[in-house]
């Protein structure tokens, strides 16, 4: 895992947890110092976050954190599920070539290896994220429908709508590893359905797969709420 990937994961998680508040300006140097990184990976991560709809450019330069609601995120995830379901059905109808089957199998093996450790490390989490992005991209590329591909690309610009954006925020927690294992079992079933020519099943599995992201959203919101309730107590105890 390179530094840019680490910084991207940390910034994405920080934005969702509220460490970086909506409207807050993200200056490269300050973010770099906060994360213990250089400005180059921070700059690249901010560009990626802008593409994901989590930050936007500021009139005076730099970036600010975008405002978003939980319902907006949930709606975008639901839309992605139906779009990817259609893509999986189209791939099945076209037929999975040997080359595509090998690429799928490589992704599945990579995911198995990434989830082998217990607890997971940040490197494991990043490895799984890269695999997850690749697997979803393979399905979209192979569907052959350019309008569908553009629709997914547009939807991915909404906050936390992309394939890996709502993976568990804390990969080292046992409950998060369990959810990632469950999601990867769905990957195996989805690939098997496409190989077998089961288009309707592949479509249904792809739609169902996004429920993992919805569950992760609910878990992350619950953790964020708990943290917000605890912080005033900590400040009171510490005399803040």
TrEMBL record:
Pfam families: FCD, GntR. Residues 1-68 form the HTH gntR-type domain. This is GntR family transcriptional regulator of vanillate catabolism. Gene3D superfamilies: GntR ligand-binding domain-like, Winged helix-like DNA-binding domain superfamily/Winged helix DNA-binding domain. One of its GO terms (molecular function) is DNA-binding transcription factor activity. Transmembrane segments: none annotated. InterPro entries: GntR_C (IPR011711), TF_FadR/GntR_C (IPR008920), Tscrpt_reg_HTH_GntR (IPR000524), WH-like_DNA-bd_sf (IPR036388), WH_DNA-bd_sf (IPR036390). PANTHER family: HTH-TYPE TRANSCRIPTIONAL REGULATOR LGOR-RELATED, TRANSCRIPTIONAL REGULATOR, GNTR FAMILY.
